[in-house]
Amino acid sequence: MTFNEKLKTIWEKTNSLVCVGLDPEPLRFPDHLKNVSDSIFQFNKAIIDATHDLVCAYKPQIAYFSAKGAENQLEQTIAYIKQNYPDILVILDAKRGDIGSTAKKYAIEAFERYGVDAVTVNPYLGYDSVEPFLLYKDRGTILLCRTSNPGAVDIQDLEVNGEPLYMRVARIISESWNTNNNCLLVVGATWPSQLIAIRKIVGDMPLLVPGVGAQGGDVETIVKSGQTIDGAGMIISASRSVLYASSGSNFAEAARCAAITLRDQINICRKKVTSK
Amino acid sequence: MTFNEKLKTIWEKTNSLVCVGLDPEPLRFPDHLKNVSDSIFQFNKAIIDATHDLVCAYKPQIAYFSAKGAENQLEQTIAYIKQNYPDILVILDAKRGDIGSTAKKYAIEAFERYGVDAVTVNPYLGYDSVEPFLLYKDRGTILLCRTSNPGAVDIQDLEVNGEPLYMRVARIISESWNTNNNCLLVVGATWPSQLIAIRKIVGDMPLLVPGVGAQGGDVETIVKSGQTIDGAGMIISASRSVLYASSGSNFAEAARCAAITLRDQINICRKKVTSK
């Protein structure tokens, strides 16, 4: 199955567009996990077990592992999801981008070493920097288009031939790079008008939408702006608002509640909620 | 000492603008290193010992390590340089780029975990994605401006207000982001006219120039196009043409010869060669 086929299947199975971003920050872990050698894995495992029926994807952010030299716990986390919840997609949030020969190595890192279903990639270096990812036809390549951070205006909003750069990027990817139908775009949730503009350009291409929750995106406007005609088309990601819903020993239950709330807030606004 | 001060010191000490990119590819190693458990480190160590008096910097490309799950050998390689040749700068080629909270983690990865002097960063996400790196005032943040790969035209050459995006990026970094005087730019060696344009914008900001050697950049035009008035201003990087100058057991000697040749080709064209 291709990434998009798997995505459609899991959207229907869990009736959820929610993705939980795994940004494990040991300083924010509950006390009982603070002096555990594999605390990052244990934290992730508890979050995953508590939310697996509520999500379409998990999105581990590799920087949180790399900063700690904890690549092994990233491997463990991904293997745990794959073994126990094989339908759930795993997106490696790595925002890689380099010349072709190096990009091949990054594609191996994501798709072979970690074995993820999709990876986030930066488009600034152009097609040959993205092609090694696209050649994995059954995997998703999720390209940065318009991100959710304040500085996104600095480069992404520069005007190119009468439209902002991010719209041009969306157009290039949609028209030229998506020949294997395995491109997705990252579109931040902070400015819904951008979701509307990008949705018009890319048709039903799935969008990864981070920035919900701690980053402040409003769920209703996001869903109404970005959904496809069948009420899907988005992987809506929340990280800190779910992971750290409680700092106590009940963190996993609190994460479950936050994920349920988000799923339901989204589903209320979807054009047609697919029920099993 | 700041990165730029260290760079000036090592430029003068070795009388060399050459940087050797460490892109270790085990399939290309000589036979005697092929079944060694730490072959990547052993290969790098041999290259470093053979070239340390000929270079201003080493630039390990992290993707080559990550694809193999060999972060430990990256740590070993960097520690080896720091212990044995402490004046030589180490640039982590990682091309990181993410929202501020994640960029902090990537800055920790580069500057604290690996302890490098500088790291390459992608500017597409804007200022707050770069700031966590810039806050390490004694380290260098080397921002992608115009890269050396064929696909660089796709996004970087798009016209923004009458000039290509990469020139606008150079202007933004030079005018707004470089308040700690620790920004550098990556400018590929494939089109010297771009080096000339960028040099005009950024004054004497040091440029990291990859694409010499295997990627085909011509040394004379690069040096004449990119040097500052004192005949420096560039870190000129070659990887494959040095590392794999020979595939036999004499690979380190062959790398030394290739590095000498490159250093001398560069020095012949410099406005003023500083001699000790």
Please explain how this structure is put together.
2 copies of one chain form a homodimer. Chain A is an alpha/beta fold and 276 residues long. Chain A has a single domain (3-269), classed as TIM Barrel (Alpha-Beta Barrel), CATH 3.20.20.70. In chain A, 46% of the residues lie in helices and 16% in strands. Chain A has 12 helices and 10 strands. In chain A, strands 1-2-3-4-5-8-9-10 form an 8-stranded parallel β-barrel, surrounded by 8 helices. In chain A, helix 9 links the parallel strand 8 (183-187) and strand 9 (207-209). The mean pLDDT of chain A is 95. The interface between A and B is large, with 54 and 54 residues.
Feature tags:
alpha/beta; homodimer; 10 strands; 46% helix; globular; TIM Barrel; 276 residues; 12 helices; two-stranded antiparallel ribbon; eight-stranded parallel barrel
